[in-house]
Write a structure and sequence with these properties.
3-stranded antiparallel beta sheet, 1 helix, 124 residues, 6-stranded antiparallel beta sheet
Length: 124
C-alpha cells in the first residue's frame, strides 16, 4: 500500500497516536461542503454534512462514511480510539451520549489526520 509523505507533526498524530492542541488545526472551524479524507492514504472518511461545531476545538462529526472508520479500545482503558479502516492511521476518539446531535455521537478528529476535497471535486 502506498502512503502519502507525512510531516513530523502528522507522523506524531497519525502513526504514534498523538493529539494536536485544541483550536489549532485547520479543520476545527472549517465550513466548506465536501469530503474529509485520510491524510495518510486518501480514503474518504467523513462527509461535511455530518460535521458540527462541538465547541471542543477539534473537527467533530456525528457519523463516518460506511466502513471508513474502525473503533478500537484506547490504551487508557476509558476511551474508544478511531482509526482509518484502510491504513490504521490514528484519527482521534469517538464519544457517545454527550447530546450534541440527534445521533448522540461525536467523532473527535485531529485536523492533522485529515485532508479535504471540496464538493465540486468529490464524489459526494
Amino acid at each position: 500500500m502506498k502512503f502519502n509523505k507525512l510531516t513530523p507533526q502528522e507522523e506524531y498524530v497519525i502513526l504514534y497516536k498523538g493529539t494536536e492542541f485544541a483550536f489549532s488545526g485547520k479543520y476545527w472551524d472549517h465550513k466548506a461542503d465536501g469530503t474529509y479524507i485520510c491524510r495518510r492514504c486518501n480514503t474518504p472518511l467523513f462527509s461535511s454534512k455530518s460535521k458540527f461545531d462541538s465547541g471542543t476545538g477539534w473537527p467533530s462529526f456525528d457519523d463516518a462514511l460506511p466502513n471508513a472508520v474502525k473503533e478500537l479500545p484506547d490504551a487508557d482503558g476509558h476511551r474508544t480510539e478511531i482509526v482509518c479502516a484502510n491504513c490504521g492511521g490514528h484519527l482521534g476518539h469517538v464519544f457517545r451520549g454527550e447530546g450534541f446531535t440527534p445521533k448522540n455521537t461525536r467523532h473527535c478528529v485531529n485536523s492533522l489526520s485529515l485532508d479535504f476535497i471540496p464538493q465540486e471535486e468529490s464524489q459526494e
